[in-house]
Amino acid sequence: MSDWEVVIGLEIHAQLATRSKIFSGSPTAYGAPPNTQADLVDLAYPGVLPVLNGEALRMAVKFGLAINAQIAPRSIFARKNYFYPDLPKGYQISQYEHPVVGKGAISVLLDDGTAKTIGVTRAHLEEDAGKSLHEGLANASGIDLNRAGTPLLEIVSEPDMRSAKEAVAYMKKIHTLVRYLEICDGNMQEGSFRCDANVSVRRRGAAKFGTRAEIKNLNSFRFVEKAIHYEVARQIEIIEGGGKVVQETRLYDSDKNETRSMRSKEEANDYRYFPDPDLLPLEIEEGFIASVRATLPELPDEKASRFTRDFALSAYDAGVLSASREMGAYFEAVVAALGQSHAKLAANWVMGDLSGMLNRDNLEIGDSRISAAALAALLKRIVDTTISGKIAKEVFESMWSEGKSADAIIAERGLEQITDSGAIERVIDEVMAANPKQLADYRSGKDKLFGFFVGQVQKASGNKANPAKLNELLKNKLAGG
User: Fold this and answer.
1) Which of 22, 38, 64, 423 has CA 20 to 30 A from 49's CA?
2) Which fold has domain 421-478?
3) Residue 152 near residue 126, CB atoms below 8 Å
4) Are strands 142-144 and 131-133 parallel, antiparallel or unpaired?
5) Which of 293, 210, 286, 204 is nearest to 244 (CA)?
6) How far apart are CA 251 and CA 89, in angstroms?
7) Beta strand ranges found along 316-373 (DSSP E)
């Protein structure tokens, strides 16, 4: 691999969160029975005319402004001609030479903590095709046109990514952004957010790009990473074996963890693009752009910078906590109740125990069984030394499963920390008396046994001895005090 450089560009398809389709009034709700959400426009009946959904345009412009892209004052819809059984018109209405959103850029944070800027070539509006159904149909395929005409924003990157991890970081950043902007729900299982990956390899130091393969319809971050890894290895093996990589479209088989050829890659002229005669050129006035700009929320990078500045968090922590609007709002609510001086404690619990429980139960943070106020109430008991951090984890698990408050669980189970010096000293004396050999070894210079005594005292106290006071008293006792 050290002799090779990977070149990756992504084409991300974000389904816009409009209530109706891009050129018709049909609804876009997911999960309806087949062919119940398609009207005459979607079915391509003769004589029907498309009418642009203004909300889809607003969402596209909103995305463009969020990435500091050029918003075209004049853009054109084009017909992209190809045949699919689930494309009734025989063409897709898209944009080609004159997209609504031009060049922009996205900054991503890499694993080593460095930031990388990845260019966005364009973002254009288009309609989705229908869906072919194969399961449960003996020797036949069905066509569901519910999805035909659903508005998509296709976001095309520059070939700036040099590893699968960079590609995933970029895709995650776009995913975060479209959800922040509330223009796409980002549901990858339902196909609302998916991508095609263009992958090629070249000898390190070469100026010219290698021949690329396009991997279609990747709908999970894990699949994107695995598909790219496989494709890179496949192309290197071909070249090193004396062969040539063929430009083609490939599919990723997640069961076999391999890509396989789908068709030779069409060039733009094969699609016979030409301006759609049924749609006038789209002219966007500055006043419309200004009105959309006024609706922009605090964006992820801005929120992360504020978290770093106001709460003294690391760039990594701030990035994790600002990865969704809901996560950021939850964290800020905990800090507001707990106090800004304890923001790091709040961050650790939201990113650690809370996120772990959400992942385990496959829940979004909006469905958390512990509210921000309830978590803050638990953390207050750590701050005021009512309970230790270790006991707090047990309380947290009980809060999650039982729905009770932290104070109720602490009171019911008698979990308050022992802070009385005399009580802790009595437990220490008992432990020292029960472990004469370890005591002698410690006093002869085996300092590492201190941890043994801490553990034994905590075990004897039911993990309720105040750690700071325990350490102080234990050191004195072990020294002969």
Assistant:
1) 64
2) Arc Repressor Mutant, subunit A (1.10.10)
3) yes
4) antiparallel
5) 210
6) 25
7) none
